[in-house]
Amino acid sequence: MTEIRALTRNLALLVLLVFVPTSLQQPGSGSSTAGPVDGGTTAATVPKVRWSSRPRHRHPIVHGHDDDHDMPEHGHHRDHTNDLHKHVEHVKIPGDHDAAHHTPWKITGPGYDIRDQPHGRVIGEPIHAELIAYSDFIEAIDEKNGEVIAAIFIKVKWQDSRLRPLNDILKETAGFSRDKLSLPGEMKEKIWVPDLYLPMARKVSVPTIHQPAEAIILKQNYSVEYSAFFVIAFKCTMTYKNYPMDEQDCNLDIMSYTHNNKQLRLNWGPIGLEGAREIRTKHFVVAVLRPKGSSHFVQPNQDGPKDVLRIKFYLKRHITFHLIQTYVPSIMLVIVGWLSLLVPLDFAYGRMVLSVTTLLVLVSIFVTTSQTTPGVNEVKALDVWLFMCIFFVFSAIVDCIVDLRFLSMVEKESQIAGEEGTQLDDVAPVVDERLRASQGSRGAVAAASNTYRSYSVVFHGNNTPFQADKEVLIATPAVLKWLRLAVYLERGMTVVYPTLFALFMAVYWSVYLTASNRKAMLEAEED
């Protein structure tokens, strides 16, 4: 019985395919389903599917079902004489604006094509688009990759006379404002919008909670506004010559991707750019502004000159952190290096240990800052500072070594004089410079110079490294020469060392602070 029923159904279907197609053709459609083939023989063609004219019906009248759908257990039967059962994929209907836009309004006029650009006030003139931007939040500044991530609200306004008048749209649905109509952001795919392009952008996203933070607003006189809240990650070329007193200028340019200024003119709106003057991040204070003279300019392009709107992000680094972490400790270490010069050479070993330890700490600070600062192939201001601090402490170590060398020569010359048996009467009278300073007696020296008796150089104390077992040196002219060099060098370094470091600090801070203090100038030059 089942086989007979299936055979009957197949025969009925064959009859429908041969004779019924013309009954499915809508009058006035202008299309045919069959034509003469091979001298008058009629060939069957696949019937076209007719969509419902009601906007909310997204499926064709002819639905596809399984072959056993007409069984009694389903509760209904199909009428094969009036319907063609065939599975048809769900597709969009070209020209069905209401269904495609998912709104109860039809906002475009007949023949609207989003690929065509609207004309200006006069046919042939470029269309004018005005831009308004606002930014008061910096999400992150990636110095390693040279990237700034900023949150920016952008609104673009233009006119499109091909749209239906706003009053005609609003009168179809009651309860809406009569001066504007807000539509979801997805409508930008259904109407023409300016193709804005950010050359420096690496990633652009629209935050979404329930729906993306964007909208299309229709106003009177065919005015259209597209507004959206963007999170833009864009490239910023940073220089670190003045680090950590550096200031960075990061430019975000907005232009059309395909239209030149003979087709689309971009301009700032009446409000233009509203940017926060002090956005504080972890390492920077950021100001958002329009640079004077370059906030709107024309850029040559192979498609023709294009209008460019520029937003400047001015970044000034916090210096307090580096003052506490690097500058103040390094100054203290340089002072310790100077204090080591005041230690008597009787304690030369302790003096050397103090100077070398100070030098190692400075080198450790230099290595640490090099690892934490941006890795660039240029000398930074912080590198200059730490290098000079290391140089000053190193000079204190060199001074100690040279003094020890001079005193060793004093001892050596004295030993040679003793071994040669130099007669005291043959030696001109000399007195230790340190002994003279401690006694403050010039009369004794003058009296000694009137005679040809020699005075011995006396080192006070038992901790003198060269006089552990001697207290008296034979003051020959050679001994005196080396002794005076040691004394003059020691006294000179205690004065020259702090003087040169103070001079270095004055020049350093005056140069780098003057070069970095440009914020007031930039604010004065803002458009």
List the helices and strands and how they pair.
Blueprint: H1 2-19, H2 21-24, E1 36-37, E2 41-42, H3 97-101, E3 127-142, E4 147-159, H4 166-170, E5 180-184, E6 196-197, E7 201-205, E8 214-219, E9 223-235, E10 247-256, E11 264-275, E12 279-280, E13 284-289, E14 296-299, E15 306-317, H5 320-339, H6 348-372, H7 381-420, H8 433-439, H9 442-449, E16 457-458, E17 472-473, H10 477-516, H11 519-524
Parallel strand pairs: 3-11
Antiparallel strand pairs: 1-2, 3-4, 4-9, 5-8, 6-10, 7-9, 8-9, 10-15, 12-13, 13-15, 14-15, 16-17
Helix pairs in contact: 5-6, 5-7, 6-7, 7-10
Polypeptide structure, described:
This protein is α+β, with helices and mostly antiparallel strands and about 525 residues long. The chain folds into three domains: about 1-20 and about 40-90, no CATH class; about 105-320, Acetylcholine Binding Protein, Chain: A, CATH 2.70.170; about 320-515, Neurotransmitter-gated ion-channel transmembrane domain (Methane Monooxygenase Hydroxylase, Chain G, domain 1), CATH 1.20.58. About 35% of the residues lie in helices and about 20% in strands. The chain has helices at about 1-20, 20-25, 95-100, 165-170, 320-340, 350-370, 380-420, 435-440, 440-450, 475-515, 520-525; strands spanning about 35, 40, 125-140, 145-160, 180-185, 195, 200-205, 215-220, 225-235, 245-255, 265-275, 280, 285-290, 295-300, 305-315, 455-460, 470-475. The strands form four sheets. Strands 3, 4, 5, 7, 8, 9 and 11 form a seven-stranded mixed sheet that branches. Helix 5 (about 320-340) runs antiparallel to helix 6 and helix 7 packs antiparallel against helix 10 (about 475-515). The longest helix is centred in the C-terminal third of the chain and has 40 residues, at about 380-420. The radius of gyration is 46 Å and the shape is elongated. The two termini are about 90 Å apart.
